[in-house]
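Problem: given the chain below (334 residues), write out its structure.
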Amino acid sequence: MLFIKFTFLAAVVAGLPSSTNLAARQGCTSPRLRKSWSQATVEERLAYLEAAVCITKKPSRLGMHPNATLHDDFAYTHAMLDFDIHQFAGFLPWHRYFVMVYEKALQDCGYKGTAMYWDWVADSSDPANAAVWDPVTGFGGNGQGTENTGNFAGPIQDGPFKDFRPLYSGTALEQHGLCRAWSRGNPANDDKDLFGHRYTPQIVAEVLATDSSYDAFREALEGGPHQAVHFGIAIGNGRGRIGDMVPSSSPNDPIFFLHHTQVDRLWWIWQQADESRTNAYDGFHRLPPNAPEGEQGPPVTLNDVLAMRDLAPDAKVLDVMDTRNANLCYEYPL
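Solution.
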């Protein structure tokens, strides 16, 4: 097991940031373009889906449970680090790196492309009919019925992941069919399906106009559109049963990675608006819930570690601030 883990880590280091300061190296000469799912060809979508299904069948790297898959590893790692990667400055760089690790896993399954994003801003007027939910060239649709497993809502009924059974709920073993519980909103309040009214072009433009600080932008994005998409896919009508996109193990749902590639794209667009934002990073670390009231955590730095708990080598924040550095080497359409 140790030899296998060492061999894997050595291979990944060649294609992903390590703990060294990669941002100081020369940038890439031909950055790869990450596409919107709706703009990708049918062939590109099917190739991505084939590789994503492959990840759900590959053996675990972490070895936490004999039935765990590589896809379960992503959900478990995210859940284990839940407190350390949300609601503070590190949210954006950590998830940027996490998506990159997933992209590499797709490529290890034979995929030749890059991570793709769901442009939920463009689909906000009717997100329930977005191309990402197509049963053949997408991720399948909403969950239906109920399942007597913990607090989960109904499992999905179609698409390439309808037979996939994630192993975890948070960090607890709770195998279940992949669940979604789309919010239908409240027509009396003019709500749209999947909370689309919370990530309209106007709202996202206001988030992108945040110029007071990096952390102010991060807070507006994380607590606004980002959170609304998670809730829209997974909280249903608020009856206490939820889909996989809400727990800390939200990477259970493969749509998580298209969602967070879009989050990364919006950060990238914000960075492009001003060259000084490439390495803009400020804020404070979260303190544990039992910390004295009013106490503030230490300030964040570009040398803070982005932990991956053996899913991949750890990186530093500075390693992922510029997507055009030698090891990330990608960009988005503006």
